[in-house]
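## Example pair
The file below holds two records. Each record gives the amino-acid sequence first, followed by its structure token line.
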Amino acid sequence: MTQTIGALLEAAAGRALPVVRGIDDGQLGRRTPCEEYDVRALLNHLFLVVVNFQALAAREEVDFGHQPEFVTGDWRARFGAETARLVEAWSVPGAEEGTTGQMGLPARTVGLMVLGDLTVHAWDLARATGAEFVPDPGVVEEVGPGLAALAPQAREMKVFGEPFPVGAGATAFERVLAVTGRDPGWRSGPAGG
């Protein structure tokens, strides 16, 4: 039986929250595997994704062009609250049915997109800050094929980079990272940058 998006997001959030809560303010300027984002910018992006995908679950319009500053005040607690709302939004009966968003994608596909973002960006933040991160195996099993199917369009939209070459012995999660254009062996530089 395929797990629901709500259950998968709950598992993914459980792995992402310790990473986010463990980020020290002194690490906000560090570079990340996402070349265009430092830690602060990536946190802001991830907040925007989490908030907007709550709305998409409810079939509401979203604006990814407007990027508010989320990393203020008690942002760590707020991230926990927003991910809880995300899980709740995608756990509503019918949330995975029909289509949602301006592109009219199947709702389950949209749910898999936010699941992928939450998981991959938690890895990005962990790598940038030296935190431990092991994704939920059920999440990896679900997002792997979904992200691979979305990859050509995501590359065209400049959301994914070119696939990173990995060997035959790569883990399922390393293959997920590679399909998004990430080097699974990426490490933060020694100068904290």
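Second record, same layout:
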Amino acid sequence: MAAKISYDDVEVGTELPAQTFGVTRATLVRYAGASGDFNPIHWNEKFAKEVGLPDVIAHGMFTMAEAIRVVTDWTGDPGAVVEYGVRFTKPVVVPNDDQGATIEVSGKVAAKRDDNTVRVDLVAMSAGQKVLGMSRAVVRLA
């Protein structure tokens, strides 16, 4: 598989299509099973509050994975991502209701490099707060 986006067609400032991802308690349980991360802050409201959290929170790696989907959907090739890193700044609080939480992610090409790669800076928000900082991916384009 190769990236469907051409390096020559991208400029600094090119905006990637923004996406919104829903996350419910059921999503967290499925992720816990897949990842093996059964920390009770991700599923047990009583425990989460006892340790000072406002409620159950999404796994940081889950939040990170949802954010990079903006890039992989844009390129059409998950293998095009050659580097990816974030700082976790705020938790995604997931209430126990039918709505859950949302993670809104936008991205923009911040730099073009000489080797057919670009740096994409991502912004991930939930409940009006930035939940990932320094969220950056380097992507090899066609």
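Notes on the second record: Helices lie at 25-35, 45-50, 60-75. The mean pLDDT is 97.
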